[in-house]
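Workshop exercise sheet. Pairs work together: one partner reads the sequence aloud, the other fills in the structure field after running the prediction. Swap roles for the next sheet.
Pair: D.N. / O.F.
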Amino acid sequence: MAGRRRSNVRNNAAEAAAFARRALLGFVLVVAALAVLAGWYFKLQVIDHEVYAKRSEANRIKPRPVVPGRGLIYDRQGRILASNEQAYRLDVTPEEAGDPRQLVADLSRIIALSPDDIARFERERKAQRGFRPVTLKLRISEDEMARFAIDRWRFPGVEVVPYLNRHYPYGDLFAHVVGYVGRTDDSDIERYGQAHLLFPQTGRTGLERYYDEQLRGKIGYEQVETNVEGRALRRLGLVPATAGTDLRLSIDAELQRAMVLAFGGLHGSAVAVEPKTGQILGMVSLPSFDPNLFVNGISHTDYRRLMDDPARPLFNRNVLGGGPPGSTIKPLVALAGLDSGLRTPEYRVFSTGEFFIPGQRRGYRDAGRGGGWTDLRDSISRSVNYYYYQLAYEMGIERFDQYMTRYGFGRPTGIDLLGENPGVVPSPRYKAQRSKEPWYAGETVIAGIGQGYWIATALQLARGTSAIANGGVLNTLHLAAERRDGFDAPWRPIARPPGERITDRPDHLRAVQEGMMNTIHGRGSATAMARGAQYRMAGKTGTAQRVSRRGNASLDPRALPYHLRHQALFVGYAPAEDPTIAVAVTVEHGGYGGTAAAPIARRIFDAWLLGTMPEVEVDPVTGAPAAVVAAAPGATPAREVSFEGVVDGVRTVPPGAVAAPAPAPAPVPAEARR
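Structure field:
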């Protein structure tokens, strides 16, 4: 019993020692934990202070991009052709705005939203991530802004954003030159990179596309202090944006307007060039369109109207078009004959009215009954086909190709517009790409008068004519003459490559020039345009056939339906002694160059040299321009089909149109038949 009592007695000393050990261990652990915590605090507050200070500052100060103003475009006199206007748009951040359908319904009670606005918003919202703002409406009015400001609290994630909107004050006058911008899309981001997303608009056509990188400038940034809700409080710093480069063109707005008026409502194209420099003074493609429709996204209705128009107003006839040059190529073919040694200016041929290739029975006809004895000057002024049939045949297609390429055909002119058609010079190489048939001698013969496998643009014709006018230098054509990198910066000329000399024989060139002067001031095919002129001109008319004649029968283009009539052309320059302007004019369905294209060129010359603005005569019966009524008697001009729409051998009347019976052809003077 005594032993059992001794085992139940507590050992206070042992318990005290164990408690002391445990307390010490706990104390050590607490001290260690406090040391670790203190060390962590020291690391945060001292060692990593700079890192976390920057993060905190970043939460308080946010960078915001500053989009620069797009560069302005001026004409040669300083008139603004493309400007920027202050505008406001409505942006929505989908992940903050809630149900998009309810949002659109609620906003429609405050801001007028068209079906196109809503459809575009839905399309873009689904195509990108929810944290990116999507534009619901561009160009909201001041009244709409005021109404939205009252109910702003009801629409989280919806903001009114200021921006600069592109505007074209001259509307359709420069649509095919200046071009237009459109809203930046995914294809632009793929082409230029993610940073391009910050630019609201991107150049689509014309100079806006060609010089897009220079015109748009460089993005800047501002540092904005915000509160916990992300609302901007004040601006703390700024890295300024670099404004886009301003461009000054060589084009004159008043001459451009005169060129449009000179057509009197007819369709076609014209290019006016300063011969000594290659600067383009005016360039029109008719009909045209209003580029302002495209700036913020064209509506479906407007786009269908433009696309369904048979006259193709969106088609740039100068840059993308082209066709047989007809007799306008003869001055350059004559120069090739001189420089090749096959002809001299005094060498004469006897035109019987029909040229025969040795050993063949088929003849290649001339105008009328033949030109009789004809030298180089006379062959140009009276447009004697026989002379050029024989010359081209003797030259051979290979040498012909070489000379025409030297004169700028079959290759781009270098104009600062994208997509230029290089054209085609007739050659066996080109034919082999399209056909398995061999090259025939007859194809060489008709190449001499600008027919057959020819595609020449108005730009190429104007460039070649300028080379004749300036003494034999083929200059690179260009629209932008100067640039300015900043509003206060000086204008600097835009460097261009030197011109190419096309001949080293001034006497040969002089003979061609005299032939072109005789075309207007002698007994040539455009003497009517010299009536009342206060200066001398030089030029060449041309007619490019769209329909071939049948057998040996002559074909009067006015006996054809309007949309199948020949292309009327004219090239020339003035004043003849010291040229300051060279032109190439193409009139669709004009019939004859001497009666349709030459008068237009005369009005352009008068506008540039005398400051005389053309007057548009209006037909008292129809109210349409008199030139249109005269060109298409009994037809409705609005329903015509442009020549580019007539595909190899397919001749059709537009749907719903009825071809009017052709009137009896009136006698045509011999000088107007080319």
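Discussion prompt: The two ends are 150 Å apart (CA to CA). What would you look at next?
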